[in-house]
């Protein structure tokens, strides 16, 4: 499938298709979760074993499809115990490195409000349209998907880029 507006930090749609096989279907919430996990690995320079994720979203599908996308691409999984789900309004995920020696700064990715509204409209779509929307959302630029910020452990919020380590 040809994807327009494809993000350069995502290699191919292969990972979305693989996530779809894991999850059972492809849709926009799964796609968002996959993109969030990929972004976290890039931003935090972490491996599958080096990340922790706290997901906040409503209970139940389609929101919890986001959880599976995050698990698939970030390696933060129920089985490894490095992901947790907190029932909340809206949808966001906070990633941090599991290494205790690292400065504890969380990368918070919040689903952009405009996209949140758009995806609520999508709940009236049929299965095939949901799949197509999943591919389309997956290919959108990061800034249209998430509000991205850094947050320290004490809750202080930072800018959109990590601070230097003083090096
Ligand atoms: Zn799903």
What does this protein look like?
The protein is an alpha+beta fold and 167 residues long. It has one domain: 2-Layer Sandwich (60s Ribosomal Protein L30, Chain: A). It is built from six helices and five strands. It has a five-stranded mixed sheet with strand order 2-1-3-4-5. Strand 3 and strand 4 form a beta hairpin. The longest helix is centred in the first third of the chain and has 17 residues. The C terminus is likely disordered. Bound molecules: zinc ion. Zinc ion binds next to loops.
SSE layout:
Layout: H1 14-23, H2 28-44, E1 51-57, H3 65-74, E2 83-87, E3 92-97, E4 105-111, H4 113-121, H5 127-138, H6 142-145, E5 146-152
Parallel strand pairs: 1-2
Antiparallel strand pairs: 1-3, 3-4, 4-5
Helix pairs in contact: 1-3, 2-3, 2-5
> Within the CATH hierarchy, at the fold level, what is the topology?
60s Ribosomal Protein L30, Chain: A
Strand content: 15-25%
Strand order of the largest sheet: 2-1-3-4-5
Mean pLDDT: 86
User: What is the count of helical runs?
Assistant: 6
The tally of beta strands, per DSSP, is: 5
The chain-level structural class is: alpha+beta
Order of helices and strands: HHEHEEEHHHE
What is the CATH architecture term? 2-Layer Sandwich
Distance between the termini: 44 Å
The small-molecule ligands in this entry are: zinc ion
CATH class descriptor name: Alpha Beta
Globally, the shape reads: globular
Query: Could you describe the largest sheet, including whether it forms a barrel?
Result: 5 strands, mixed
Radius of gyration: 15 Å
Low-confidence stretches: 162-167
Helix content: 25-40%
Kindly give the count of domains: 1
